[in-house]
Specification:
- The chain has 164 residues and is of the alpha+beta class.
- The protein has a single domain, classed as Gcn5-related N-acetyltransferase (GNAT) (Aminopeptidase).
- The protein is 34% helix and 27% strand.
- It has six helices and six strands.
- The protein has helices at residues 16-27, 31-39, 89-103, 115-118, 125-132, 156-163, and strands spanning 6-10, 46-53, 56-66, 72-80, 108-113, 146-151.
- The protein has a six-stranded mixed beta sheet, with helices on both faces.
- Strand 4, helix 3 (89-103) and strand 5 form a beta-alpha-beta unit.
- The longest helix is centred in the middle third of the chain and has 15 residues, at 89-103.
Amino acid sequence: MICDKLVIRDCINSDQKSIRKIIKSSFGREAEANFVAINTSNTGQTISLIAECDGQAVGHILMAEIDAPCKAMAIAPLAVIPKYREMQVGSQLIRQALRIAKEKDMAAIFASGDPLYYERFGFSIENAKKFNGSASIANKGPKNSRLIALDLKPEVFKCAKLAK
């Protein structure tokens, strides 16, 4: 599949049906789509971006503010329609969301995912261990899924020490 024009933009209310389709196609079930619907209506800060390839919605990322000892968000989830996965759609969604998170003065970002995928963006299991002492999420997420974290500010590890 070739995409002549990929656009990453903020989600709007009318995108909800497309987001549900993207997430269901990506994960093969409704649970993640239901989670997104609930978390886009929460009162904390969120970043919700959609990727369009030649005008068709093909990817989505949601980052939601979480309760942590410092300003932090979690990626929950990143989804790309399978036939568009080798086109860097997910990478572009993550990069744009991280840029916005920095503008929102976030100190850390967490994700549950494949460390080999997320390490290209600076995420690591070791960063997550500094916050919770354990990098594994038992019986949750896909095989090889781990809690990983990215520090957006040097002082984030100071607040991590307070979390223990």
